[in-house]
Amino acid sequence: MKIMIITETFLPSTDGIVTRLTACIRWLHRDGHEVQIVAPDLGVYEFDGAEVKGVPARALPFYRSKKFALPNRVVKKYIQDFDPDVVHVVNPAVVGYSGVNYAKKLGVPLVASYHTNLAQYMSYYNLGMLKWLMWWYVRRLHNKADINLCTSQTVQTELQEKRFERMHLWKRGVDTEQFHPGHHSRKMRERLSGGKTDRTLLLYVGRLAAEKEIEKIRDVLEESDKFCLAIVGDGPHREELEKHFEGTDTVFTGFMHGDELASTFASSDVFVFPSTTETLGLVIMEAMASGLPLVAAESGPTKEQLTSERNGLLYDPQIKDDFKNTVCRFEDETLRKRLADQAFTDVAAFGWEAAAEQIRDLYKEAAGVKVSKTAENSDTVSEERR
């Protein structure tokens, strides 16, 4: 098959969406398919043999640290030139608007996948009164697709309640070879802990944005001197966070990738994930594969991956200080090691092959649906002409 992936985010950015896409693209290549990627032009023009077609990108006023590609007619040209069997628009919002509409106008089978709760994020940028409009806009784009995907059962239920159509659950996965406890490094631990290697090292990895609620972690450091913290990633909220954590045992590293990121996970002790807005959080699985227990908010998507008291601890965002009190339970090293061992065991069977096979089959299904619709339309026209 010839598969075009149009995405709002791609390399060199690193997040759960990019992780999922790169893993599946590699598998699709091994399975004999041709892939072309359309993404914001950030200087990457090839991945694993697939051409990356850039769309001019710029920072938006309310999110200066990341560049977005706006709707652009060049997307139509890219689709026409590549002539794909199927177009997959990932997280349609900005350049994805062009992907959805041009794919439909050109009669190309269309798959769309939902990864980010944009409506919920708006509250963190003082735009909460427009949440209804964002839901309307995103639903309108998705309902043009032949097949829609999301990454958790909880989100699938929510989207169906909001009248999103043709929803499928896209399986999750993790690279259990790259993320593994065996990548522990004493040198990395010294770097992440600021030399305080005897402390229990808390780790946060992800985008530094207001909706991630990273500020909550400071309460733990003020409550107990047994912890230190490493914050890995970058984003629009970094400057505010550096001020917020000033005077605490916190190290900011910026972005990390590949083997360095794998070593970061394996060299830490506890992964902390305060966010209450996640649709899946693949970083949770990367932490588990690295042998880390977790503290995360009790929510539907998170509970699909974590079982409290088994492989991590869940906190209740509605209870004051529950995050702080839950993390502080990891002063108990016995508890930490027990949950860490179980986290590693629970995720060991996951890989990306099943998710990639599934998306290939859905691409074929979408193309088949389109062909049958075309055939039905031809029959109707023939009947009318008679």
From TrEMBL:
Q: Pfam families from the entry?
A: Glyco_transf_4, Glycos_transf_1
Is Transferase among the key words of this record?
yes
- What CDD domains does UniProt report for this protein, alphabetically? GT4-like
Domain Glycosyl transferase family, by residue range, is 196-343
Q: What top-level branch of life does the organism fall under?
A: Bacteria
Keyword check for Cell inner membrane, yes or no: no
Q: Which residues form the Glycosyltransferase subfamily 4-like N-terminal domain?
A: 15-178
Gene Ontology molecular function? glycosyltransferase activity
Keywords of this entry: Transferase
What protein name does the entry list? Glycosyltransferase involved in cell wall bisynthesis
Q: Which organism is it from?
A: Marinococcus luteus
